């Protein structure tokens, strides 16, 4: 499987860094299977930080090996358990089992709006899930532990 990580720098050796905000799947090194999404993120990061240059970091992973060796949480589609997991992580209140790898739908800007409305109580769970079903979602894989990072192999970088 090929994975992408958009940044303003080359990331040959990813690290687990605590972010200053709560993300969909908690703390970890975020990658996506969607090249365009990673390119857009790289451009946003380089523009926001005013340093470096938009960089697409490209990785490979043998998911058959990694998924067997690591504690994996996998969401095949955005269902109720995905929504609950993302909502708890976004609020910084997730207290469940810890995983090495988390794989599932990535929340793009439209999905973020739906989740924000859900967290604000303006949509109930059924309305939020109904809204998510009509969206085309791409996948993300989060490497949440140092153990999981050993399965991620840097291939190359591209300036974007």
How would you describe what is shown here?
The strands form two sheets. Strands 2-6-5-4 form a four-stranded mixed β-sheet. It has helices at 35-49, 63-69, 80-91, 109-119, 125-133, 146-149; strands at residues 2-7, 29-32, 55-60, 72-74, 101-105, 139-143, 153-159. By secondary structure, it is α+β, with helices and mostly antiparallel strands. Helix 3 (80-91) links the parallel strand 4 (72-74) and strand 5. It is globular. Helix 4 packs antiparallel against helix 5. The protein has six helices and seven strands, in the order E-E-H-E-H-E-H-E-H-H-E-H-E. The protein has one domain (2-159).
Structure described in brief:
The protein is an alpha+beta fold. The protein has one domain (about 1-160).
How can the largest sheet be summarized?
Answer: 4 strands, mixed
Pick out the low-confidence regions. none
Structural class: alpha+beta
User: What strand order characterises the main sheet?
Assistant: 2-6-5-4
Please give the number of β-strands. Answer: 7
Rounded average pLDDT: 91
Query: How many DSSP helices?
Result: 6
Radius of gyration: 16 Å
List the main descriptive attributes of the protein structure presented here.
160 residues; globular
Write the SSE topology:
Layout: E1 2-7, E2 29-32, H1 35-49, E3 55-60, H2 63-69, E4 72-74, H3 80-91, E5 101-105, H4 109-119, H5 125-133, E6 139-143, H6 146-149, E7 153-159
Parallel strand pairs: 4-5
Antiparallel strand pairs: 1-3, 2-6, 3-7, 5-6
Helix pairs in contact: 4-5
């Amino acid at each position: 499987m090929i994975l992408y990580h958009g940044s303003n720098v080359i990331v040959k050796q990813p690290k687990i860094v605590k972010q200053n905000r709560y993300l969909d799947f908690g703390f970890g090194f975020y990658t996506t299977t969607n090249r365009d999404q990673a390119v857009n993120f790289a451009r946003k990061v380089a523009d926001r930080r005013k340093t470096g240059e938009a960089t697409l970091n490209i990785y490979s992973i043998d998911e058959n090996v990694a998924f067997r060796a690591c504690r994996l949480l996998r969401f095949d589609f955005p269902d109720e358990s995905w929504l609950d997991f993302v909502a708890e992580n976004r609020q910084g209140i997730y207290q469940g089992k810890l995983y090495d790898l988390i794989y599932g739908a990535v929340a793009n800007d439209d999905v973020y709006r739906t989740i924000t409305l859900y967290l604000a109580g303006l949509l109930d769970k059924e309305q939020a899930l109904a809204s998510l079903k009509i969206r085309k979602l791409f996948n993300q894989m989060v490497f949440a532990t140092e153990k999981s990072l050993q399965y991620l192999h840097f291939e190359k970088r591209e300036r974007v």
